[in-house]
Specification:
Spore Coat Polysaccharide Biosynthesis Protein SpsA, Chain A, about 25% strand, about 190 residues, 7 helices, single chain, alpha/beta
Length: about 190
């Protein structure tokens, strides 16, 4: 399985002069995500998806010895679609802004995904988000409960053609390591209480 870190976004909601994924929470946020993937031992290779919108992040991950795929930076879906074309084994897609991600939760996710699914997204419940003090712009109904996407999916890229609709499966894991994405200053403040 490939570990694919999405880290080419503009990060405009953070309203910071510094690139979002280089903001430090003990160490740069992107480094937490990469370390979690490396330490899990679940991946044959780790690759970062970068774009012109985050040149310093791209340089930083290359300095860590991580391979990159440069995309056009047209949006998350477009960039992911472009990157998935490079692989023919399952891909663990993770947003680069999950500062609390660690190897244990990565292993838990990998072990909870069935091989036969084409696309499995990891969710947290809205109730759990409310409990930790964060919120999501995008909710989906899963088993009668409002849930939010965590930014983590496991995808079979051989079955995905130009991001055409596929039947998506879900795994619900209420865990603070998955619930706090660094999108705003408020999210950063929440990291300090986590």
């Amino acid at each position: 399985m490939i570990g694919l870190v999405m880290c080419g976004g503009k990060g405009t909601r953070m309203e910071s002069a510094q690139e979002k994924l280089l903001i430090k929470y003990k160490k740069p946020v992107i480094e937490h995500v990469i370390s979690a993937l490396e330490e899990s031992g679940c991946f044959s290779k780790i690759v970062c998806v970068t774009s012109r919108h985050a040149p310093k992040t791209s340089e930083f991950v290359k300095d860590l010895g991580i391979s990159t795929i440069e995309t056009k930076g047209e949006g998350y879906v477009e960039d992911l679609n472009a990157a998935l074309k490079s692989f023919d084994e399952n891909v663990f897609v993770v947003s680069g802004d999950l500062a609390l991600l660690d190897s244990e939760i990565v292993k838990k996710i990998v072990n909870s995904i069935e091989d036969k699914t084409l696309w499995t997204s990891v969710l947290v419940s809205k109730k759990f988000l409310d409990l930790v003090g964060t919120k999501s712009e995008y909710l989906v109904n899963y088993n009668g409960e409002e849930c939010a996407f965590t930014g983590i999916s496991v995808v079979n890229p051989k079955a995905i053609v130009d991001m055409k609709h596929v039947k998506e499966s879900y795994v619900l894991i209420d865990d603070k390591r998955l619930a706090i994405n660094l999108n705003t200053k408020r999210d950063y403040d929440l990291l300090g209480t986590a």
